[in-house]
Structure formats: structure tokens, C-alpha cells
Specification:
The structure is a homodimer of 229-residue chains.
Chain A (H helix, E strand, L loop, with lengths): L4 H15 L10 H8 L3 H13 L3 E4 L3 E4 L1 H23 L8 H8 L5 H10 L25 E2 L8 E7 L4 H9 L7 E8 L4 E5 L5 E5 H4 L2 E5 L7
Antiparallel strand pairs in A: 1-2, 3-8, 4-5, 4-8, 5-6, 6-7
Helix pairs in contact in A: 1-2, 1-4, 2-3, 4-5
Chain A binds a DNA duplex (30 and 30 nucleotides) through helix 3.
Chain lengths: 229, 229
DNA sequence: TGAATAATTTTGACTATCCAAAATTAAATC
DNA sequence: GATTTAATTTTGGATAGTCAAAATTATTCA
């Protein structure tokens, strides 16, 4: 039995939901799962119980759900397809990075392994997708390295944007217009709790101030000084 | 309500089923439809009645079903997606023309108009797919021109292969190996009812003898003498 | 700790799609 | 024209996925 689109979507949502959490207590609550999938809470409960039956998740009533080893591998493969398709649409088809998410959301369930392999090959076995998210390998292995966000990284130090963890088109366009895409080198000049804002110095010392909520959606890593002459 | 994959498949099957028939009495019988879709006869009946409810087909109990104007347009658009995807997979992704059918069968239901437009553009608004079948326009209009087959075309006259009307991979590989793909120029030297065979002279006077059943699956048009010096 | 609130699960019901087998209708044959 | 055969439709039932609303459990807060 190969999993239906619905099952793949549930696994993916649980996988991404777990992302926020610590390694030990990584139970995704039903409410969060239901709203991530846009279904009623009861629907999520029913479905998750079925997933638990088939061994793809572990379900703790009233507590939440977490992926089993099998479920995690499947979720990673869905994400692999999603991210390879996104990158393909941007690099080969010339679509904008803010408009490929929905398309990939559909295609990820219907592309054969054969075609995905072809895409992977054509793109040169890439490590990350257009949002900077890592692309799982064909065996389901993911290079998980966690970074600071603009909210937590050191002040006054050059950092490189690695991921943008919000896939909404308007946000992505904002990011693009202000040169905050993955790969850009920037610096956090100041943060202010009171005004809920973060001031950035971007490319060619361009200044922008953004809200803390937005800042938390931009992941960065320390720019390696040695690699920049 | 946009149509489900199932509805699209029914419409496409009826469209293709009508292809064999004359313009007036073009009713596809239920049995044929059911077996084309791989469902039980009763299932096809039920579904067709529902399609008739929504105005996509005209249903005559015990006689068969034909597409309405709306249904025909929808079917043409599904076919457009299918054929553009096939051509894309061959030309851009480098897949074999005998392995793209199944992939396209899946993707045709899940690709956005936006992406199809991109593909169409990238391929230079092509007229035909890798099997020589015409690609409907975005408005649903199809250039329908019927040709002879190797079974009916004049003997001893140069003809050009235009379509191969059997999508089975083994057959397509056979066609490819013997240089009988769309575009190739060939000549029927002889036909023999008794031995059920057709003798062909192909590229660089290569000879092959094929069965009449196979010959009927290769459509051709008269090679235009003026265009070949 | 006990009531108010929030999250979760259960229940009953619905839609789309499918099948198997019985019943019916049409077609073919004698 | 009556009967056999073939095609089609009906019937009863199954599965996957969904919702709304009632019932339950957990949590919060006074």
C-alpha cells in the first residue's frame, strides 16, 4: 500500500510541527496539527489513530502525536520531493521563489521516483531548496543543523541568511525586496523589546527595521570570516 | 467546483473513445468506457449518470454516453496538459518517449495553468506530442486532421509517419528501433491478407515486415513531394 | 479545590468512489 | 417469434476522508 496524498500530508505536517520542539518532548498537539492541515480537530484525531494503527506514528491521547521511524522516513521523502520540485521550478522553469510553494504542494504527491531522480541529477544534487531548507537524501536522511534567527543571533556581527521559515508569498516578496534571501550577508544592529523591533544593516549598508515576529522567521548562521577575504 | 481527477479521467476516456467513431453516432458504450478506465461496469454507469447531472455529458441509457460541449472542452484541456507534459518530459527532462505516458497520466491532474503555460512557452507552443497526437490549444480547440494508416495508405508511395496510436512501451520501443517514429518517411511496398502482413521500406531502404494489426496503429500522411527537393 | 475554560475525543452523518452480484433490457440466434 | 446470450443497470455494501456538535478530559485560576 503506498500512502495516499492525505497520509503524506499528515506525516509532513507532523514532521514540520515537530521541528519547533525539543528532541525529547516532541509531541505535536492535535489542535496544531488540525489547523496546519486545515481540517476539524475531530478529523485529525480520527486520522491520527488510523496512522498509529499502521505504525507510522505514535499517538498519546490528549497529549499529541509523534512520528515513528517509518513515518519519519516517509515524511522526509515527501519533503525531499517538495523541495526538489520547488528548486526545479525556480531554477529550470523560471518561476518566482514566492510562487512555487503551492505548485510543489500538489506535485509532491504525484511525481515518480524516476522523475525525482532526474530532477535531482539535473540540479546537481542540491543541498538546500530556494528557502534555504535542507533537502533530505533519497534514503530519508536529513542534514539537520539548527541556526540562530535574527532574534537570537549576536548583535553587531556579520551573519548569513540560511533559511526563511515562512512560506507566505507576501512575506517572501518582502524578504526578496529587502535583500534578505538565503545567502545574503547581514548584521543585526539593535533590538528593542519595547518597540518590538529589530534593526538590520543589509547589503551595501542598507538599513531596515522589522518586527520581532518577522525577525524570528529569518534563520542565519555566523558568516565565516576566513571565507570572505 | 473544479473537477476531480476521477471526473477528468472519465471525460478523457469518453473523448478518446469517441475518437474511433463517426461524427453523428458517436456514443461510447458503457462496457468500453468501464474497461478503458479499469472499473466495474456498474461503477461507470453510476458515474456517468452523475456527470450527466452536472451537464458534462449526454447519457442515453443502454446506448452509451457522449460529451457535451462543456465536457468536450474540459477533456481537451486535460489532453492538452497530458500531451504538453509528455513532450516536456521527453524534450527537457530527457526521458524516453516510451516511459512518459504513465508519468503524464498522474501529473495531468495536478499541474497549475500557470505551469502549463510556462511549459507550452518553453517548448515553443508545439502542435503535436511525442506520439504525433495533436496538442489542444488553451481555449480547448483541437486541430483534428485524420490520416491514413499503414494499412490503408497507397502502396509504393512515400508517406510520413504522423502518429503512433498505441501507447504500450514494448510497442513504442519496437517502433523506435525500426525507425518508424513520427516524422520518419517510409513506403508501403506490399500487403498480404493471407499472411496478415505489411512490408515496409524505411529509412535508407531498410526493409521490415509487420503484422496488419501493428500496421493499423501507425498513422501516416502523404509526404509532400515539393518539400523534399 | 472547585468552577470556568480550553483542548480533545466521540458520535452521527455525509460525499465520492468503488465492487460484486442480482435484475433488467437489448441483441442475436434458431 | 421464442429463447439464449450479452450488455447494462440496480441494489446493497465497502472505504477514505470529511464536518458539526455533543461529550469528555485537562488545565487554569481564583
Amino acid at each position: 500500500m503506498l500512502p495516499s496524498s492525505t497520509v503524506e500530508n499528515y506525516l509532513k505536517a507532523i514532521y514540520l510541527g515537530e521541528g519547533h520542539l525539543a528532541d525529547d518532548q516532541r509531541l505535536v498537539p492535535m489542535g496544531q496539527l488540525a489547523s496546519a492541515l486545515g481540517v476539524a480537530p475531530g478529523t485529525a484525531t480520527t486520522m491520527v489513530k488510523a496512522l498509529a494503527e499502521s505504525g507510522l506514528v505514535e499517538y498519546e491521547p490528549y497529549n499529541g502525536v509523534r512520528l515513528s521511524a517509518a513515518g519519519e522516513k516517509l515524511a522526509a521523502l515527501v519533503l525531499r520531493r517538495h523541495r526538489l520540485i520547488e528548486l526545479f521550478l525556480v531554477r529550470v522553469m523560471g518561476l518566482g521563489w514566492d510562487e512555487v510553494h503551492d505548485e510543489a504542494e500538489q506535485l509532491e504527491h504525484h511525481v515518480s521516483d524516476r522523475l525525482i531522480e532526474r530532477i535531482d541529477e539535473m540540479l546537481g544534487r542540491p543541498e538546500v531548496d530556494p528557502h534555504g531548507d535542507p533537502i533530505p537524501k533519497a534514503d530519508g536522511h536529513v542534514a539537520r543543523h539548527e541556526f540562530d534567527t535574527l532574534l537570537t543571533c549576536p548583535l553587531g556581527e556579520r551573519v548569513t541568511v540560511t533559511r526563511v521559515t515562512d512560506q507566505e508569498a507576501p512575506f517572501l516578496r518582502f524578504i526578496e525586496q529587502h535583500n534578505l534571501m538565503p545567502g545574503e550577508s547581514i548584521e543585526v544592529e539593535a533590538r528593542d523589546e519595547v518597540s518590538d523591533s529589530v534593526r538590520l544593516k543589509g547589503r551595501s549598508d542598507q538599513r531596515i527595521t522589522i518586527g520581532m515576529r518577522a525577525a524570528s522567521k529569518v534563520r542565519v548562521s555566523a558568516s565565516d570570516a576566513s571565507s570572505r577575504g
